[in-house]
Design a protein that fits this description.
about 120 residues, alpha+beta, elongated, 4 strands, 4 helices
């Protein structure tokens, strides 16, 4: 299974002073999510380039840096592809896994939820 979790690589403590920021470890990672405090949001605000890195469980690997607009384009394409897969995926499940068709189709229907939440 592929999982993605947005994180912000945090700078050194003296790197930013324009507005209040959260309490974070310098040169660490701050998870971006709906439970962040306002100060944590201040830490995460801004940034036009994103860096994608393999998780620690995936082992080593090269980081990929790309403009935020390009990441949005790639994610939109992935969403479009997964949405398009719903019908053939449901048909295949009905034929090959009739007892599991309903949960599989329900899981496929949840895939575009990422774009709807943002």
């Amino acid at each position: 299974m592929i999982e993605t979790r947005p994180v912000l690589e945090t700078p050194g403590r003296d790197a930013f002073a324009l507005w209040p920021v959260g309490d974070y470890l310098p040169h660490g990672f701050l998870a971006l999510n709906a439970t962040m405090s306002t100060a944590d949001g201040g830490t995460a605000d801004g940034g036009t380039t994103v860096r994608l890195t393999p998780g620690t469980s995936a082992g080593g690997g090269r980081a990929i840096e790309l403009p935020l607009a390009e990441l949005r384009r790639l994610l939109a394409g992935t969403e479009r592809d997964l949405t398009g897969f719903r019908r053939p995926g449901g048909t295949l499940a009905a034929r090959q896994l009739p007892g599991h068709r309903r949960p599989l189709v329900a899981a496929l229907a949840r895939t575009p939820a990422l774009a709807e939440e943002s």
